[in-house]
Amino acid sequence: MFEDHKGKPFDTARPLNYATSNIISSIVYGSRFEYNDPRFKEMVRRANQSICIVGSAQIQLYNMFPRLVSWIKNRQLLLRNVEMTIRDVKALVKNLKETLNPSVCRGLVDRFLIRKEKEEDSCVKDTPYNEKNLIFTITNLFAAGTDTTATTLRWGLLLMAKYPHVQDQVQEEMSRVIGSRQAGVDDRKNLPYTDAVIHEIQRLANIVPMAIPHKTSRDVTFQGYFIKEGTTVLPLLTSVLYDESEWETPHTFNPSHFLDKEGNFFRRDAFMPFSAGRRVCLGESLAKMELFLFFTFLLQRFRYTPPPGVTEDELDLTPAVGFTLSPSPHELCAVRRQ
Ligand code: HEM
């Protein structure tokens, strides 16, 4: 899809969303969607719109005063999106159910359906393998796994266009170490600069600034503060990713944050874009793999620049606020390299 624009400016959002969405789809349904499939296009559009709406002031207000403002427009829109997504997912699951062959497992849905049938046959009570859990597992994976990875990649390409000397070094390292063949996950350890750049993109982009709200399961005293059982707690990842006592230049794009004096990659404890603890991002290892493979592939094949007439300095890094922080609407040129 990048190729189609022939080096002319375009918005990177749609192709990246479709690509990452198809990874989740392959895992969940066992197949990819065509990029021109109207149902797929709508599912991706709705997932992105919902993530944006969840971060809106209206929904924050609703979360605080649910009884007072249940009528607000964004909540109605969100509920309609959920309803339509459930309808689509049900249709896709029905199709898989009708073609289910227990000896050929195509994806997560097949595995779930096989287990569901088995538990029903054995009359297991209160099993989590029920229709409702299946539908919500699928919709949650789709929502959590599409926008996050695509948004990080969009930040990555925008930062490469803004800082061409960093892009030069990534491309130089890749040419030197892997040449023109496609990178595999095992190449990461031999590409310390590229690895550092990907980590720095995630740190600065800070795409899930407030993680996901949690509730205390019992009374706790934390750093001298008493927090009652059942209190909603927001772990502010921004406070760690931009911590002035942890990072040399917390507000600047600086891949050296992850490099030692010899240019070797090193991990930092304050790198927590996936949060931490028991409810740490379930897709962390998948996301890391996707980011590395997509980023190296896209950098190997294209050079990213601002549109004609726009300088690198003018590329705006102000985020658009939603539940996740994505770059403000922008266009880039992707010029074919090889
Ligand atoms: C760059 C990409 C990603 C980032 C930055 C990210 C970040 C996060 C964060 C901060 C949380 C909240 C953790 C908490 O509650 O404290 C989370 C939860 C979650 N993420 Fe991701 N995520 C990414 C990609 C993915 C992918 C690809 C998947 C798909 C499998 C995924 C699935 C989930 C799920 C299911 C949860 C909820 C886990 C739970 O509540 O136990 N994420 N993610």
Automatic annotation (TrEMBL):
PROSITE patterns (UniProt xref): CYTOCHROME_P450 (PS00086)
Record has Membrane as a keyword: yes
Membrane topology reported for the UniProt record: Peripheral membrane protein
Cofactors named for this entry: heme
GO molecular function, one term: metal ion binding
Presence of keyword Ribonucleoprotein: no
Amino acids binding heme: 281
Top-level taxon in the UniProt lineage: Eukaryota
Keywords from the UniProt entry: Endoplasmic reticulum, Heme, Iron, Membrane, Metal-binding, Microsome, Monooxygenase, Oxidoreductase
GO cellular component: endoplasmic reticulum membrane
InterPro entries per the UniProt record, alphabetical: Cyt_P450, Cyt_P450_CS, Cyt_P450_E_grp-I, Cyt_P450_sf, Cytochrome_P450_fam2
Subcellular location: Endoplasmic reticulum membrane; Microsome membrane
One Pfam family this sequence matches: p450
Protein family: Belongs to the cytochrome P450 family.
Name of this chain's protein: Cytochrome P450 2K1-like
Source species: Pagothenia borchgrevinki (Bald rockcod)
Lineage: Eukaryota, Metazoa, Chordata, Craniata, Vertebrata
